[in-house]
């Protein structure tokens, strides 16, 4: 094809312009998509090699400033998985500042996304990713024994969630798990009214989660609501939550505060990743079939059926509190009409440009046609180091020192993995946060879609 092009007569200026344009497009199309580049990191995480995954991430920071937020989010998660909570929060703080800077729309980037592809826009994360940024920052502070700093993060999260929920009718506009964690932080600080407000919002959000994502209100949230409602004298709410959760007995807050509590948060698997899917579609504006590239989420089978927390002779099941798989897939589905419309508009612009150029110069028209096809790429960027699902378990601890065991059970009851936490200290009125991130040894298997 290129041999044919070189035989077409053009002016030197035309050859230079078209040659430079084609070279740029070839460089663009020759680069692997973000999702493809992450395959190496995923394999290293599946092998349990966190240092190698972090090293790979540092070597491939994407397309400079456009991908910097994504780099910082993944760096923060990998550092957290290594137990480096301080550096993890430094990366999250950098990501927050950069998101604020980039949130003002860049006219040049917007124009580029409308004429080339969506990857030319700076990545600032989806709504649920921005909420989880604050969630993990708060968790980092809690594990550093800094509840006041976690409270600041929760207040920032509240502002973000209120903005996202304002006037939206989407499946995801609030985050139930984030609200639940907010209640935990306020409860730890003895701010009972704020804890009740947060728990109440979490319960309301889980009603929506049940409908859209199949995640029901956890029983531990019901117990927290009953304790707070009773303590604050909210008799009608007490009656309503007692009926909703079918709970007849619970420990009153003053008695509950005489013991400590372990809060276990387990993240399993890796969040779904976007892949590119090309298709031909009829473009009414051009009257021809054109090729467009769209993103789709590739999810994997979740092998974990149960998460069990064992303290001495007592066991409690951790409950599913966040299904990132379901949230990601649903939110992308809701955005697809707009994404498809942009892709179709781009294809029409490229087709018309190539047609008009071809009427003047056949070779240049062919070059622009090739360049247009090669430059069509779906935006496959996402916070890929997030877990697939998040489980939370709460267990009272009488004052003392404990060895705590956590088991991940398969859907048939078999033990997939287990972890021991030694020397966990229970103190009256205090919470101990334990976290575990488990990634199956073979995350490349078990594709669902």
Descriptive overview:
This protein starts with a helix and ends in an 11-residue tail after the last strand. The N terminus and C terminus are likely disordered. It contains 16 helices and nine strands. A seven-stranded mixed sheet has the order 8-7-4-5-6-1-9. The protein is elongated. It has 449 residues and is of the alpha+beta class.
Strand-helix topology:
Layout (H helix, E strand, L loop, with lengths): L1 H5 L5 H19 L3 H13 L3 H10 L8 H14 L3 H18 L4 H9 L11 H17 L3 H19 L10 H13 L3 H22 L5 H13 L3 H11 L7 H4 L3 E9 L4 E11 L4 E11 L5 E8 L2 E10 H37 L1 H14 L13 E9 L2 E11 L4 E12 L4 E8 L11
Parallel strand pairs: 1-9
Antiparallel strand pairs: 1-6, 2-3, 4-5, 4-7, 5-6, 7-8
Helix pairs in contact: 2-16, 3-4, 4-5, 5-6, 6-8, 8-9, 9-10, 10-11, 11-12, 12-13, 15-16
Primary descriptors:
449 residues, alpha+beta, 9 strands, 20% strand, elongated
Radius of gyration: 26 Å
Task: Provide a count of the helices.
Answer: 16
Order of helices and strands: HHHHHHHHHHHHHHEEEEEHHEEEE
- Order the strands across the largest sheet as they lie in space: 8-7-4-5-6-1-9
N- to C-terminal distance: 36 Å
Low-confidence stretches: 1-24, 26-30, 443-449
Query: What portion of residues belong to β-strands?
Result: 15-25%
**Overall body shape:** elongated
Structural class: alpha+beta
- Tally the beta strands: 9
Helix-residue proportion: 40-55%
Largest sheet: 7 strands, mixed
Mean pLDDT: 85
């Amino acid at each position: 094809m290129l041999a044919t092009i070189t035989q077409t007569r053009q002016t030197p200026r035309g050859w230079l312009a078209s040659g430079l344009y084609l070279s740029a497009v070839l460089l663009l199309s020759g680069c692997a998509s973000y999702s493809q580049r992450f395959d190496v990191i995923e394999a290293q995480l599946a092998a349990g090699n966190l240092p190698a995954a972090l090293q790979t991430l540092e070597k491939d920071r994407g397309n400079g400033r456009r991908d910097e937020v994504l780099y910082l989010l993944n760096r923060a998660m990998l550092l957290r998985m290594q137990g480096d909570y301080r550096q993890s929060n430094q990366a999250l703080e950098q990501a927050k500042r950069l998101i604020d800077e980039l949130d003002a729309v860049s006219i040049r980037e917007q124009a580029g996304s409308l004429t080339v592809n969506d990857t030319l826009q700076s990545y600032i994360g989806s709504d649920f990713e921005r909420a989880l940024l604050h969630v993990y920052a708060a968790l980092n502070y809690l594990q550093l024994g800094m509840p006041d700093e976690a409270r600041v993060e929760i207040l920032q999260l509240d502002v973000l969630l209120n903005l996202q929920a304002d006037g939206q009718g989407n499946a995801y506009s609030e985050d139930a798990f984030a609200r639940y964690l907010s209640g935990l932080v306020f409860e730890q600080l003895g701010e009972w009214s704020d804890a009740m407000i947060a728990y109440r919002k979490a319960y309301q959000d889980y009603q929506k989660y049940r409908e859209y994502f199949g995640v029901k209100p956890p029983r531990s949230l019901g117990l927290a609501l009953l304790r707070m409602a009773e303590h604050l004298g909210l008799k009608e709410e007490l009656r309503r939550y007692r009926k909703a959760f079918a709970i007849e007995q619970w420990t009153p807050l003053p008695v509950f505060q005489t013991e400590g509590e372990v809060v276990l948060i387990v993240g399993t698997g890796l969040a779904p990743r976007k892949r590119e899917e090309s298709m031909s579609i009829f473009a009414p504006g051009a009257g021809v079939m054109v090729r467009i590239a769209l993103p789709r989420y590739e999810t994997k089978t979740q092998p974990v059926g149960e998460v069990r927390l064992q303290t001495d002779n007592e066991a409690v099941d951790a409950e599913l509190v966040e299904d990132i798989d379901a949230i990601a897939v649903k939110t992308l589905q809701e955005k697809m009409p707009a994404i498809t419309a942009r892709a179709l508009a781009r294809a029409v612009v490229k087709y018309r440009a190539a047609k008009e150029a071809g009427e003047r110069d056949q070779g240049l028209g062919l070059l622009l046609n090739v360049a247009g096809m090669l430059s069509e790429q779906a935006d496959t960027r996402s916070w890929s180091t997030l877990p697939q699902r998040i489980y939370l378990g709460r267990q009272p601890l009488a004052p003392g020192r404990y060895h705590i065991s956590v088991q991940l059970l398969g859907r048939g009851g078999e033990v997939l993995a287990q972890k021991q936490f030694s020397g966990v200290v229970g103190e009256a009125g205090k919470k101990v946060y334990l976290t575990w991130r488990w990634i199956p040894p073979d995350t490349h298997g078990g594709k669902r879609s």
